[in-house]
Amino acid sequence: MPWLNLSSPEESSQSKDSSTVAPFVRKRPSTVLFLLPIGFLLPLCFCTFVYWQVNKETSQIYSNVDSIPSRPAALVFGAGVGSSEARDRVLAAVALYKNAKVKKLVMTGDNGEIYYNEPIAMKRQALELGVPSSDVICDYAGFRTYDSLYRARDVFDLNSLILVSQRFHLPRALYIARNLGLNAIGFCADRSSYGNISRWYDLREFGAAQAAWLDLLSRRKPRYLGAKEPVFPSPN
To answer: Which CATH number goes with the domain that contains 132?
Structure first.
C-alpha cells in the first residue's frame, strides 16, 4: 500500500522551510574598530616625533674638559640632595671652574620646602672642593629644567653658558635653551654608574620631552620669576 502524505500543504511547506539553513551573512566591521587603532597610533607617532626632535640636540655635548669651549658661567642642575647624580654634576662643574672654562657656577634646583634645598647642598660641596663662595650663585626656584633656563636668561642675565648634567638630560636642556635664545653647550657629568634607575631616567625623558615642547609652545613663565639678579653686574 503506497505511503499516504496526510499532512496539509501548509504543514508540508513549513517543514521544508525549517529544514533549510539560512545562509551566513558576514557583518561589516564597525567604523569604531578602524578608528580605535588610528586614535591610538596618531598620538603615539606625534609624541615619538616630539621626543626625536628634542633629543637630537647632541652635537654640542662635551665629555672632555680640555676640549669644551669657554663660557662665562656654568648652570648646574639639581638632582636631589645627596644623590650620586647631583654629586657628579658638582664635580663636573668644579672641573670646569678649575680649568678656567667658566668664571661662575650657578646652582639651580628645588627649594620648595624649608628643609630641602638643592642649590645650597650643591654650593656646600663646591666650596669644599675649593671654589670661592663669591663665584657660586644659587637659584632657589629651579623647580624644572625649563624654569632654570628661563630664569638664567631673565633673572641672572646669562646668554652664554655651559649646562652641566648627565647625558640623558642634556639633549632636552639644550633644546629648551636653544628655543629660549640661549647660546648654550652641554658638559656631560656621567662619572658614576647609576644602576637600574638609568632605565627609569630614559623612560621619563619621553614624557619630559612632551612637557618641554608644550612649555615652549605656550611660552609659559616660571612659577617664580622676580627681579633681575645679574651674575655679572654692569659697572656703574
So the answer is: 3.40.50.620
Give dist(CA 89, CA 108) in Å, integer: 11
pLDDT digits (tens, 9 = 90+) for 132-141: 999 999 999 9
* Residue 157, domain extent: 61-218
Neighbour tally for 88: CB within 10 Å: 20
Q: Let me know if residue 207 belongs to a domain.
A: yes
Q: Is 208 part of a structural domain of the chain?
A: yes
Mean pLDDT is lowest, of 35-44, 176-185, 217-226, for 35-44
Q: What confidence tens digit (pLDDT) does each residue in 7-51 have?
A: 555 555 555 455 555 555 555 556 655 556 665 677 777 677 767
Helix, strand and coil percent figures for the chain, each rounded to 5 = 45, 15, 40
**Residue 186 maps to a domain:** yes
Residue 14 resides in a domain = no
User: pTM of the predicted model, to two decimals?
Assistant: 0.79
Q: Pick the closest to residue 81 from 125, 146, 139, 131 (CA basis).
A: 125
Q: How many domains does the chain have?
A: 1
Q: Please tell me the number of Cα atoms within 13 Å of 106 on its side-chain side.
A: 27
